[in-house]
Specification:
By secondary structure, the protein is an alpha/beta fold. It has eleven helices and eleven strands. Pfam families: HTH_1, LysR_substrate.
Length: 298
């Protein structure tokens, strides 16, 4: 067995550089100076006796072996996190630090309603929130940057455990007094594909909306331009088309001060499933189930 082993800090520096592709941004992510991060990586390379990163003035390029080491480093760091979680899970439930990623189509609408009660009832819980799209959130989960993720299903999550919270219906939103406004109960066939506005790629709500309509041609015809639900609402309010909104956002008041009408969609799949997910076999599984109960109660 080698006397000299890489430290977790060195592996964190390596993973951060691989993620950000830039020494300065990687150092900021690790809360150290650039010189400290660079020195730590050189020590790691010297320790292993190999070159992991090719450095030029413009490009940071990982060697093939460097990419393999990064993949192994992700697993080691995740297991180190789980070791810490194992110890913490034997203390008070929902106490200490917990990092949760939340997708943008949930965070501004659900969290303001839930967090005040959670802070009051769980004062020892230090909840660190990170808002990011579903793909990035799941990547953060598997790489150990997040302990759990609050997101909408269906979505490809990999090996995780999941706790269902509730179903969030999808409604069709039209400009007020639009002459093409359909009857009170909207059918997928009545949606004009040339006027449908959806979130751009990277947002799972786009796929949920298209799946609810079950019309393959919509994927080719719909305008995928919105960067947020608030942007879509402004576009619809200005008569530029129609969109689909989750009931959660409407309940939170996203249509306030607009002349938009939201109507139910007649479809078997006109909803998304809101769920809390975490890494499979996490020692904090029972704690996450308790958190799910708290979120469900909100």
């Amino acid at each position: 067995m080698s006397t000299y082993l890489p430290t977790l800090k060195q592996l964190q520096y390596l993973v951060a550089l691989h993620e950000h592709g830039h020494f300065g941004r990687a150092a900021d992510a690790c809360f150290v100076s650039q010189s400290t991060l660079s020195a730590g990586l050189r020590e790691l390379e010297t320790l292993l006796g190999v070159v992991l990163v090719e450095r030029t003035r413009r490009v940071v390029r990982f060697t093939p072996l460097g990419n393999q080491v990064v993949a192994k480093a992700h697993r080691l760091l995740r297991e180190a996190e789980e070791l810490s979680d194992l110890v913490q899970s034997h203390g008070l439930p929902l106490a200490g630090e917990l990092r949760m990623s939340v997708i943008p189509t949930i965070a501004p609408f659900l969290l303001p309603r839930i967090l005040p009660r959670l802070r009051a009832e769980r004062p020892q819980l230090k909840l660190f929130l990170r808002e990011e799209p579903s793909g990035a959130a799941i990547e953060s989960l598997h790489h150990g940057r997040a302990d759990c993720v609050l997101l909408a299903l269906p979505f490809a999550t990999g090996e995780v455990e999941c706790e269902h919270l509730f179903n969030d219906p999808l409604l069709v939103a039209f400009p007020h007094d639009d002459p093409r406004d359909p009857p009170p109960l909207v059918t997928p066939a009545s949606i004009d594909e040339n006027r449908l506005l959806l979130l751009e790629d990277g947002h799972c709500l786009k796929d949920h909306a298209l799946a609810a309509c079950n019309r393959p041609e919509l994927r080719a015809s719909a305008t995928m331009i919105g960067t947020s639900l608030h942007t879509l609402v402004q576009m619809v309010d200005n008569g530029l088309g129609l969109t689909m909104l989750p009931e959660m956002a409407i309940t939170a008041g996203i249509l306030a001060n607009t002349r938009i009408v939201a109507r139910a969609l007649q479809s078997e799949h006109a909803y998304r499933e809101i769920a809390l997910v975490w890494r499979k076999n996490s020692p904090r599984g029972e704690e996450f189930r308790l958190l799910a109960e708290e979120l469900r109660a909100g």
